Amino acid sequence: MTIGVSARLTVGDPDAVGGRRKDQWGIEQSLADWLISTGALIAAIPPPSAAGGNSATAWVSRIDALVLQGGADIQGARNASTDRRDVFEFELLDAALERGIPVLGICRGMQLINVAFGGTLRVADLTTSTGVHSDPRRYEAHTHPVRIAEGGHQEGVYGCATGLITSMHRFAVDRIGKGLTAEAWCTVDETVEALRSDSHPWVRGVQWHPEFHHQGMLPSMPMLRDFLDAADNA
């Protein structure tokens, strides 16, 4: 099985030495380790350059499932963003939906799914004086609890109604996209923390990072196994 992962951009530092001077497209290490822990193959999918490259459809024809990973903020509405990564990830998502393969959106990836389905985003910490959803100094160690929808897909995966998750995002779902259903919320301010598609076999988004979860948090493996099982049966 091969999982395609939309590549994220690490901008090079012109004052560094060696390869760190150069921009790099890749996969965050903890995410890669999480995905390959079950024996799956993974492929980083960078957007084509101005000189050309493989199309989203060509990539999706060669993979069994797609992960839209976290990273920089989405730069605008679906038809407004000119950001190279945004544009290509919308194309990847369209191709995956057309082919019917599973899609998992993590953090930014969930936001992109929401925008692709016509939803909108807002600044995450609107109503609190402290950062509920992001603390750059703590990053992956920053957590908050979530409430999981009764009878929903996420409850079936995790087998519980509440849990502790990682949180490191500046933006959050505002208006939910057409054909999407919320399946988890932050217990502090009711921010949407998980989405699923009503009309596609396995399209899910979570605002948290399961690859960073450890003992005492929502376990990381149930979601991954569910995702891979869906890929096996697609």
Report on the architecture of this protein:
This protein has 234 residues and is of the alpha/beta class. 24% of the residues lie in helices and 25% in strands. It has 6 helices and 13 strands. A 9-stranded mixed sheet has the order 4-1-5-6-13-12-11-8-9, with helices on both faces. A two-stranded antiparallel ribbon has the order 2-3. The mean pLDDT is 91.
Strand content: 15-25%
The CATH fourth-level homologous superfamily: Class I glutamine amidotransferase (GATase) domain
Annotation, overall tally of beta strands: 13
How many helix segments? 6
Query: What are the segments in which pLDDT stays under 50 over at least 5 consecutive residues?
Result: none
What is the element string, with H for helices and E for strands? EEEHEHEHEHEEHEEEEEH
Helix content: 10-25%
Distance between the termini: 12 Å
Notable features of this structure?
alpha/beta, 6 helices, Rossmann fold, 13 strands, nine-stranded mixed β-sheet, 25% strand
Write the layout of secondary structure elements.
Elements: E1 2-6, E2 8-10, E3 24-26, H1 29-36, E4 41-45, H2 56-60, E5 65-68, H3 84-99, E6 103-106, H4 108-116, E7 121-123, E8 143-148, H5 153-158, E9 162-166, E10 171-173, E11 180-186, E12 192-197, E13 203-206, H6 221-233
Parallel strand pairs: 1-4, 1-5, 5-6, 6-13
Antiparallel strand pairs: 2-3, 7-10, 8-9, 8-11, 11-12, 12-13
Summarize the structure.
The protein has 234 residues and is an alpha/beta fold. Helices cover 24% and strands 25% of the residues.
